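Recall the central idea of this unit: under ordinary conditions, the amino acid sequence of a chain determines the structure it adopts. In this exercise we apply that idea directly, starting from the sequence alone.
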Amino acid sequence: MTTQKKHTFLLFVTILLYISFGLLTSVIGVIIDKFQVEYDVSLSIAALLPFAFFLAYGLTSIPFGIGMDKYGAKAILLFGTLLMSIGSFLFYLSSNYIIIILMIFLVGVGVTAIQIAGNPFIRELDSPSKYTTNLTIIIGIGSLGYAFSPLLVPLVQANGYSWNTIYLLFGIVNAIILLLLLFAKFPEVTLKEEEKINFSTITTLLKNPIIITYSLGIFLYVGGEVGVSSYIVTYMNKVHGVSSTDSFWQKGSLLYSAFPSKTALVVGAFWLFQAIGRLIISPLMKYIGEKKIFITHSLGTVIALLFVIFGNPTISLIAFVFVGYFTCASFTALFSATINSFKENHGTISGILGTAIVGGAFVGWLVGAVGEVSNMQWAMLINVLAFGYVFYLAAWGKGKLDI
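Accordingly, the structure predicted from this sequence is:
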């Protein structure tokens, strides 16, 4: 009975971790324009915020996988939470934009550690038969962090605090989680052989067409996701003149006090509808099939993004939310189609695909750079091309779905 209680407690703490890194990930979408104004830097410099965050995935996914094999889940989870806490506190305390970019990178390293160690760790906290259910639930609840984080920044400002105060709150939350983890007793995590990273097979796998095409798919999908979600506020401001202080509701009303920024609300809705979409498509896959859902949703992403680019302000705002919904299927489909294509080396393949998440850094930065030298509509077309490639894989890729 005692052991079960400890596992239940760790499941609760793990849920807090997933919510926490969701908060830290999606908040970037509403601080880029504030960072740009506060430090009087170009959009290309401000675009280094998502670049630094997602660069961490590319540089540290495989090292953390190796660290998980050697040191275990507790060490990696503690290290990741410590980095998220330190990075958040130093972000709040710093007045130098270069230091802030470095702290975003540090937070990104922490988030990467949590994700790499979290999934196999969750399997050990309950009956193996409940692993998929528990993982799905934890990821689903963690998505609330993605959805609500963008709403917190304008709420903090509306109450008279500076926008970067949000990172003080994140630092405190992560410090509390760190203490909970520090004093918790962890069960032994035993990685299955196929979950381990095997360096000797990486070179061979990287020559495989499935690995090449689907890693590029992950690279471009995450790049497109970041390239859209991080620039909703900037796009609406520069293209349609919708300020981050504009609200759907009259100032002084109850709804205004809860949602003082319409663009921040749309950023939150982007992530919320993505989470809702995952809940919707999960049962549908049994009846419609994974491949058909992947095709329709990846095509829907492209179409919705075209409505963003060519629509009026109202259509653009609504279409951004639909982009969020339609992206719900792509990442898991790309990942599953790759894993299902191989009978072994799943840990190594996962490490390669995790590294490909670095696409969020490069494509995200490119969108900001093009938006500065040209305009944000041309910049958004980069995301159309990225999601177009994902649709190509959905329709004609050789990865295995519906097995």
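The radius of gyration is 20 Å.
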